[in-house]
Amino acid sequence: DICGFVATTTIILNEHLKTHSQENFKAFSCNFCNFAAVNLSQLKAHMKTAHEDLGHPCLKCRNHFSTPEELKAHVECEHADKRLRCPQCSYTVGKATRLRRHIE
């Protein structure tokens, strides 16, 4: 009994116990506070309860958006695998218009 958590199944209990391991690597960090999670679902739950009033936060950067559509457009543009690279330097961007502006 480390924290008083009561699980309904062994699987849930084992998943919860991982949060108490000193060897546990918390790879999912909150962009708005010092919270770190062991998995994405734990981070999403934290975001919903702690930062819901901030709109729709991007889980990959510190930006937040007023609508889910704006967040989706941001993620597709800024965090997509298909980035455009400047032929003259290492600059990368998600939109062709931004790359043209950079080159000019």
Query: What fraction, in percent, of the residue positions are helical?
Result: 25-40%
Strand line-up in the sheet with most strands: 1-2
Secondary-structure element order, as H and E? HEEHEEHEEH
Shape: elongated
Name the average pLDDT.
Answer: 79
Query: Strand-residue fraction?
Result: 5-15%
Rg from alpha-carbon coordinates: 19 Å
Low-confidence stretches: none
Major beta sheet summary: 2 strands, antiparallel
Quickly give the structural class.
Answer: alpha+beta
Distance between the termini: 63 Å
How many beta-strand elements? 6
Total helical segments? 4
Which features would summarize this protein structure in a list?
104 residues; alpha+beta; two-stranded antiparallel sheet
Explain how this protein is built.
The chain is of the alpha+beta class. It has four helices and six strands. The chain has helices at 10-17, 40-51, 68-78, 96-103, and strands at 28-29, 36-37, 56-57, 64-65, 84-85, 92-93. The mean pLDDT is 79.
Compact overview of the structure:
The chain has 104 residues and is α+β, with helices and mostly antiparallel strands.
List the helices and strands and how they pair.
Layout lengths: L9 H8 L10 E2 L6 E2 L2 H12 L4 E2 L6 E2 L2 H11 L5 E2 L6 E2 L2 H8 L1
Antiparallel strand pairs: 1-2, 3-4, 5-6
